[in-house]
Amino acid sequence: MAAIEMETEFEQHHGRYERLIADAKQVPPAATVVVHPCDEPSLLGASEAAEAGIIKPILVGPPDKIRAEAGRHGIDVSRFEIVAAAHSHAAAEKGVELVRSGHGELLMKGSLHTDELMHSVMASTTGLRTGRRVSHVFIMDVPTYAEVLFITDAAINIFPDLDTKRDIVQNAIDLFRDVGLGTPRVAILSAVETVTTKIPSTIDAAALCKMAERGQVTGAVLDGPLAFDNAIDPEAARIKGITSEVAGRAQILVVPDLEAGNMLAKNLTFLTKAEAAGIVLGARVPIVLTSRADSVRARMASCAVGVLYADALRRKAAVTAA
């Protein structure tokens, strides 16, 4: 009986992505450059998102290999444009070139290593860099938490300094707002909730909060340093005597470094059966990072978030042009 009750609870709470996917269906589908989709997960992810009407895939890679892999798994790619590239490195370069030339609003990782794709994205003269530092956000659907939870940065910046953290925070805030989730509550995490020179991340957290007060970080409510428990649990925050709009009900968790973020995201995934969609921000277009281990829902949610953000960028560009 306990197992059945737990399963029911998980089913009830495991619905954070549905709203994002539904919202993505209400905006124009994004022209999506899929780089080297030469395995089942990457082809299936692109195909499913296209079937849902949220993306228009442009497949970049070896045409014969793409078609053979699609045929092996019963995936129809005949309706998609295929742009030839001899191998994964060439596909990354060609994909970035297509985005630079205005043929794509969204970049999506296929069956190549993230570093290989990001090398082309970050190229100084031919890449997609902007004035903002590139960072990654996990959009987590945690069954035991009341709402969608952003974790950043757990995939790109290994040991970010304060200036980099400022961009990491602003990227996540902009994403949260632009996909229609409102004004976020941002917790800057550390091991403790007091500022001490013995733990440098507490000083960065305090500095980020002051930067928000001075308008160097905008669009959100920040608090930190906060330990993980008093960032997400109201009772833990009450026991520690922490009173703020963020404590106990954070929506964005900013981790001290990649190691901490990666472990946190994977702990939630494997211990609470959370799902993790992922997106890279700070480049000219959003970049969808999918994994072989992603569920259908997580892949679709990654695409949905990317499409919603691409639509927000499209609308901002139209206003600027006008």
Protein described:
Helix content is 45%, strand content 17%. It is of the alpha/beta class. It has two domains: 1-129 and 283-322, 3-Layer(aba) Sandwich (Rossmann fold); 134-277, Isopropylmalate Dehydrogenase. The protein has an eleven-stranded mixed sheet, with helices on both faces. The radius of gyration is 20 Å and the shape is globular.
Output the keywords.
322 residues, Isopropylmalate Dehydrogenase, disordered N terminus, single chain, alpha/beta, 12 helices, eleven-stranded mixed beta sheet, Rossmann fold, 17% strand, 2 domains
What share of the residues does DSSP label as strand, in percent?
A: 15-25%
State the name of the first-level CATH class of the largest domain.
Answer: Alpha Beta
Helix content: 40-55%
- Give the mean pLDDT: 92
Helix count, DSSP H or I runs of 4 or more residues: 12
Shape verdict: globular
Give the N-terminus to C-terminus distance in angstroms: 61 Å
